[in-house]
Amino acid sequence: MPLSSRQAVADAPIAECIQISPELTALIGGAPATDPSPGHAFALCFSLGAGGAQPTLQINPGPRGDGVDVELLVARGALERLGGRALIGSNQSCFHLPSELRAIVLMLCNPPTLGDARATYRLAKSIELVCETVRLFEAGRLVVAVSEGFCSEADSRRLLAARRMIDDRWNEKLTLDQIARACGLNRAKLTRGFREMFNCSIAETLAERRLLEARRLLLTTDLPVSSIGYESGYLNNASFSRAFGRHFGRSPSDYRAVGVAA
Fold first, then answer.
1. Which pTM value belongs to this model?
2. Does residue 84 sit in helix, strand or coil?
3. Which residues are within 8 A (CB) of 65 and not within 5 positions of it... i.e. 6 or more apart?
4. What whole-number distance in Å separates Cα of residue 141 and Cα of residue 124?
5. Averaged pLDDT, groups of 10, the chain, 262 residues long
6. What's the CATH fold of domain 204-261?
């Protein structure tokens, strides 16, 4: 898709343009004054949802609209090398922005560093954002944003709030009633809507989030397995070992041993 249509609208703020490589450019805030890199043919537009709008990721949305906080312009060849062939060929163009990508976009817009370190930080975060977008798409973790469907826009936002609650508070003893009350949905609508939107149950999502954190701790720390199970929300080592083995095919101790050996 030619990018010559991505011209700044009158009086629009100008984006900060970061040339990461000949194949990747990041535009942060506003809109580009001119086509920043004609060689780039694929656009990933991230919106944090100003004014109550839903945070979204749009793929090749056409002329750049208002509300885009970060736009990545990526050469198709680069995306393919990163494993994004399916993303390029997707017939869906708009997704809810998951918490993992939202956190990276926020850090790109408001980096915690100054001076030369700020530019380096943004360069690294731009690359991370591309890689994480491809990874989440390939894992089926990007949820299509639709204007009409099984529930209203308001209920869709509540379901996304439930997902964020799990992502942020996975190590707490969360119950279905607690999540339902926090998000303003009854149990039945929360249970049914969550499965339809994310293709899994709340219990499955919570277990996966805890086990992924346990795997990270096993591979990056020397904490005892029992402590990792407790840190990951399991009340005893036996239940943690069973759950971990079912999910990853090895006991926590064996998984750590294989990971260290690799």
1. 0.62
2. coil
3. none
4. 23
5. 36 73 87 58 86 80 73 91 88 83 92 87 94 89 65 77 87 90 91 83 90 91 91 87 92 86 56
6. Arc Repressor Mutant, subunit A (1.10.10)
